[in-house]
Amino acid sequence: MISIVISTYKPDNFRKFSENVKLNIGVIYEIISIENPGLMGLCEAYNKGAEKAQYPYICFCHDDILINTPNWGQEVIDVFEENENAGLLGVAGGSYKPQTPSSWFFPGDEKYAKMNVTQVYPQNNEIAKCYKNPNNKILDSVVVLDGCWFCTRTAITKEFKFDQETFRSYHCYDIDYSLQVAQKYQNLVTLGIELEHYSYGDFTIEWLEESFKLYNKWKKVLPYYIGEISTSEISRNEFNTFCFILARVEKHRKCIFQLLKLLYSYNFMKLVKWNKWILLNKYTWGGMYRILRNKEV
């Protein structure tokens, strides 16, 4: 038996989602719809929904997804019953979360990213099949999950709440919640359930600002990863991610001070190593110069 919590304000999306769940979930379920036309962030919406859940397992998901895998609800239940330390279960996630602000994925993450999502772009009906299975496992461990769809035990939502005080929008709630749960439980991705997603995220100004909030909250824990990773690999991961976030800062002309504070933090210098830090220092001040020059034009 599964409770499904969804934050929505588009009746057509909710209708399609509800019909799809009825057709394919294969177990007793309830849908808890939180009407949310911009009234609250996802953390608050999900906390409200979790309080209403009456079944032992709970899914949190966007309203623009479809799951066409038959009896996917039973697969979810089986994972939790067969893995007593399972915390969260999703269809997309990563086994390395950089200290540098990022999504659950980052440039050069091929060995860490695991996902089974068909991305549909409604504006032009293009379809992109995103399947990543570096370890050739149907069920694999991760530290952070994509929030388009993930499930957990309802009891865990009593133990860990979504941080609605820090994250009041629609960004970073999933990574934050993943990291909370990962401190005690094992997060998992299943590639046995395929999800269709009818929108795509963008690295907006709001995403950038929320990502630095996440960094400030978790910087003493990050980078967070599974298994043993060499210091050179950590250095490369953080270097690649910093270059990505620098481009976002330069594009939006926001979070400049936060980026510099990160660059000159002792812990970050240790992570990226001296030679790469020198390059990042050069790239960063080049970016600052371009920002200032563009402001003068």
UniProtKB/TrEMBL annotation:
<dbReference type="InterPro" id="IPR029044">
    <property type="entry name" value="Nucleotide-diphossugar_trans"/>
</dbReference>
<dbReference type="InterPro" id="IPR059123">
    <property type="entry name" value="StrF_dom"/>
</dbReference>
<feature type="domain" description="Streptomycin biosynthesis protein StrF">
    <location>
        <begin position="17"/>
        <end position="190"/>
    </location>
</feature>
<protein>
    <submittedName>
        <fullName>GT2 family glycosyltransferase</fullName>
    </submittedName>
</protein>
<keyword id="KW-0808">Transferase</keyword>
<dbReference type="Pfam" id="PF13712">
    <property type="entry name" value="Glyco_tranf_2_5"/>
</dbReference>
<dbReference type="GO" id="GO:0016740">
    <property type="term" value="F:transferase activity"/>
</dbReference>
